[in-house]
Amino acid sequence: MFGMFRITNPLSGGLLWKIPWKLSTPQKLRQRRRLRAVDNVVATVDAALAKQGETLKALERWKEEMPTEAEMLPKDKYTMFDRKAKRYRKGIHRLPKWTRVSQRLNPPGY
Amino acid sequence: MSAYFRITLHRSAIGLPKRTNGVLMGLGLRKRNQVVFHPVEPQFAGMIMKVKELVRVEAVDRALTKAELRAERRPDPGFYVERPRAEAQSGLALAMATARASGEAVAEVEEVRL
After folding, report:
1. Which domains does chain B possess?
2. DSSP 8-state symbol, A89
3. Looking at residue B24, what is its pLDDT?
4. Cβ–Cβ of A41/B5 closer than 8 Å?
5. Residue A58 and residue B49: Cβ atoms within 8 Å?
6. Considering only A58-67, B23-32, B88-97, which range has the smallest mean pLDDT?
7. Most CB atoms closer than 10 Å: which of A3, A4, A23, A70?
8. How far apart, in whole angstroms, are the C-alpha atoms of residue A13 and residue A34?
9. What is the percentage of chain B residues whose pLDDT exceeds 90?
10. By CA distance, what is A46's nearest residue in B?
11. What secondary structure does DSSP assign to B63-85, as a single string?
12. Chain B residues with CB inside 8 Å of A65's CB?
């Protein structure tokens, strides 16, 4: 009953997905807010530097390459490319530390 | 004109790569909700870009002191002490009387009243 051989769902042979297949609506809302927060930080830093007449390579590159939250497709906000997944997509919440890393771009065509 | 970044650590870097933690140490951020000020320079902007998912940034005119930050966090006491009008006026009258007696700066006291 207890200990190493206790009866749990995974041990009784049932298939149990511990990670839900897709994000819930509030999770998606928070994800959008996090994306916007990062956009805000980038915009603030950019405006402050521009006022001083300075530029930053990393910042220019980010602005050129990365879409803002409003420009992103829902597909890219909530899922990411995975070559092993069915239809080449998996939920973004399967990415380790997904709430604290930026994952915005996916291979074109997928 | 000097300008500063007001940087607040919003998300902890626990479990993130050592370099991320190193950047936070470099910025002087040790715990969540800690606030630091750094001048607007490409060097600090680059550090912020490295940890942009973890911090919140504002551009401000000057760096606040520790005491000012503390005063900012102090909650509203929810009350204020009312002083009787007579007391306030008598204080002013007394000031004017002493000024007249010493023969100077009556105009200054008048200005204070205005």
Report:
1. 4-73 (3.30.1390.20), 83-114 (no CATH)
2. E
3. 97
4. no
5. yes
6. B88-97
7. A23
8. 38
9. 69
10. B45
11. PPPHHHHHHHHSPP-S------H
12. none
From the list A48, A51, A62, the residue facing B49 with the nearest CB is: A62
**Cβ pair A59:B49 closer than 8 A:** yes
Q: What are the tens digits of pLDDT across the range B89-104? A: 776 666 666 666 665 5
Please give the residue that has the higher pLDDT: either A86 or B113: A86
Which residue in this structure is represented by tokens 């919440």? A93
Q: Which of A38, A40, A42, A45 to mutate to test the interface with B (most CBs of B within 10 A)?
A: A45
- Cβ pair A55, B6 in contact under 8 A: no
Distance from CA of A49 to the nearest CA of B (A): 7
Residues 6+ apart with CB under 8 A from A62: A42, B49
Q: Is the pLDDT of residue B30 over 90?
A: yes
Q: How far is B59 from chain A (nearest CA, A)?
A: 6
How many angstroms separate the CA atoms of A48 and B41, rounded? Answer: 9
* Chain A residues whose beta carbon lies within 8 Å of the beta carbon of residue B10: 37
ipTM above 0.85, yes or no: no
